[in-house]
């Protein structure tokens, strides 16, 4: 992976980002709630953005709308400042590359043939150099004459990536591209693809329902729920400061705890907790499972260990505090027996996910 790929398309200006979605709405059937409802989003040049959310929240539909494979009911899509929706621009004229989970390589064409296929619009003399340059970018030069079935899943996915990148799209759309790969290959392919996109300064949108993938891959992630954006931000921002109980639970494991806030602290069943943001009155707080720690009796509150699970790098304990069950993650082995009393304390400031007296 030593080659670089110079963009030939006009670089987006401050006014013309690679993609702007405004109030995008899509219903598959009249009368039913929209699958994508009033979604607005600005994607920045060279950004790796992830659409993350539970099954059926509208991720793939959003991607298909951007690609032109579906038409929105209302709202607009602009790519490099050009409207795709008024009038409707067909997929092949959008300058958008697509990579799907099933690679969709042509089985009867070699690796080089697959990459050349997407370059038919170029003058003949430019096609071969461009295909070779792109194969070098994805580290597959030595496999150019192989047939797809002679490659591993990860290599096939890199061919699919090369085929999508070769025309130098303004925007690359990746729909669950790693989900057909086993755990180890999935991890290494994800890292390789990320490095390739960075190196070619490609703007890309990844769809996934895998939170670990979204956290590792994205510059910003968009957490979707029921066709709308629940929260958008860098992975660190969204993980550290979930704005709603849904986000807190979807991204990582959180405990939701009620309390009474007064400025930067709240009184809860776990004692007086520091808060990430100030609030007053009744609140719902999120406390990450890894922000609860077992401790000596003098430092924490008493809980009963109900069950435990070994997870490799840590152990997960379900403990009972009064009528509430809490999740505690502890690094190291499976050290604590079930059905025993223990003590826990909170090690980090809690996040206010809802002020119960006022607005959400
Ligand atoms: N062609 C279609 N006709 C009717 N309903 C559809 C169609 N495509 C998707 N849907 C419905 O729209 C909703 C959103 O689907 P979509 O595929 O966008 O979700 P998703 O977030 O990508 O889910 P997943 O992670 O399971 O792929 C789902 O309820 C789905 O059943």
Give a quick precis of the structure.
One of its GO terms (biological process) is quaternary ammonium group transport. This protein is an alpha+beta fold. It is built from eight helices and 18 strands.
Describe it.
With 360 residues, the protein is α+β, with helices and mostly antiparallel strands. It folds into two domains: 19-239, P-loop containing nucleotide triphosphate hydrolases (Rossmann fold, 3-Layer(aba) Sandwich), CATH 3.40.50.300; 241-353, Beta Barrel (OB fold (Dihydrolipoamide Acetyltransferase, E2P)). 22% of the residues lie in helices and 36% in strands. It is built from eight helices and 18 strands. The strands form four sheets. The chain has a six-stranded mixed sheet, sandwiched between helices. The protein is globular and about 75 Å long. The model is unreliable at 1-14 (pLDDT under 50). The protein binds adenosine-5'-triphosphate (ATP). Adenosine-5'-triphosphate is lined by residues 28, 35, 53, 55-61, 209.
Judged by helices, strands and strand pairing, the structural class is: alpha+beta
The pLDDT mean sits at 90
Uncertain segments:
1-14
Give the class-level CATH name of the largest domain. Answer: Alpha Beta
Return the CATH topology of the largest domain: Rossmann fold
Overall tally of domains? 2
Number of separate helices: 8
What oligomeric assembly is this protein in? single chain
The CATH architecture assignment of the largest domain turns out to be: 3-Layer(aba) Sandwich
Radius of gyration, in angstroms, nearest whole number:
24 Å
The name of the CATH superfamily of the largest domain reads P-loop containing nucleotide triphosphate hydrolases
Q: Can you give the helix content as a percent range?
A: 10-25%
Distance from N terminus to C terminus (CA atoms, Å) equals 48 Å
Strand content: 35-45%
Bound molecules: adenosine-5'-triphosphate
Strand order of the largest sheet: 6-7-8-3-9-10
What characterizes the major β-sheet? 6 strands, mixed
Spell the H/E element sequence. EEEHEEEHHHEHEHEEHHEEEEEEEE
Total strands: 18
- Gross morphology is globular
InterPro entries: AAA+_ATPase, ABC_SmlMolc_Importer, ABC_transporter-like_ATP-bd, ABC_transporter-like_CS, Mo/tungstate-bd_C_term_dom, P-loop_NTPase, Transp-assoc_OB_typ2
Protein name: Iron ABC transporter ATP-binding protein
Keywords: ATP-binding, Nucleotide-binding, Transport
GO molecular function: ATP binding; ATP hydrolysis activity; transmembrane transporter activity
């Amino acid at each position: 992976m030593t080659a670089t790929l110079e963009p030939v398309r006009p670089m987006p200006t401050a006014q013309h980002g690679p993609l702007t979605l405004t109030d995008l709405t899509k219903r598959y059937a009249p009368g039913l709630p929209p699958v994508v409802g009033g979604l607005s989003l600005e994607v920045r040049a060279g950004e790796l953005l992830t659409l993350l959310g539970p099954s059926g929240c509208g991720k793939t539909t959003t991607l298909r709308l951007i690609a032109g494979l579906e038409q929105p009911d209302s709202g607009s899509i602009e790519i490099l400042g050009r409207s795709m929706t008024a009038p409707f621009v067909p997929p092949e004229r959008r300058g958008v590359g697509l990579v799907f989970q099933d690679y969709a390589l042509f089985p009867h064409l070699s690796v080089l043939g697959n990459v050349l296929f997407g370059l038919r619009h170029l003058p003949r003399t430019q096609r071969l150099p461009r295909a070779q340059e792109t194969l070098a970018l994805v580290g597959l030069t030595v496999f150019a004459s192989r047939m797809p079935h002679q490659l591993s899943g990860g290599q096939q996915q890199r061919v699919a990536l090369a085929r999508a990148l070769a025309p130098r799209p303004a925007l690359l759309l990746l729909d669950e591209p790693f989900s057909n790969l086993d755990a180890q290959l999935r991890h290494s392919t994800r890292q390789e693809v990320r490095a390739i996109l960075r190196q070619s300064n490609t703007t890309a949108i990844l769809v996934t329902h895998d939170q670990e993938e979204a956290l590792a891959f994205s510059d910003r992630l968009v957490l979707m729920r029921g066709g709308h954006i629940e929260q958008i931000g860098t992975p660190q921002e969204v993980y550290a400061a979930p704005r709603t109980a849904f986000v807190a639970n979807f991204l990582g494991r959180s405990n939701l705890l009620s309390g009474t806030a007064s400025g930067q602290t709240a009184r809860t069943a776990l004692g007086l907790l520091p808060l990430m943001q100030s609030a007053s009155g009744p609140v719902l707080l999120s406390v990450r499972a890894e922000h609860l720690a077992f401790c000596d009796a003098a430092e924490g509150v008493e809980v009963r260990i109900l069950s435990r699970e070994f997870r490799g790098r840590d152990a997960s304990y379900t403990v009972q505090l009064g009528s509430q069950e809490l999740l505690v993650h502890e690094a190291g082995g499976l050290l604590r027996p079930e059905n025993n009393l223990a003590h826990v304390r909170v090690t980090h400031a809690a996040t206010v996910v809802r002020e119960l007296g006022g607005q959400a």
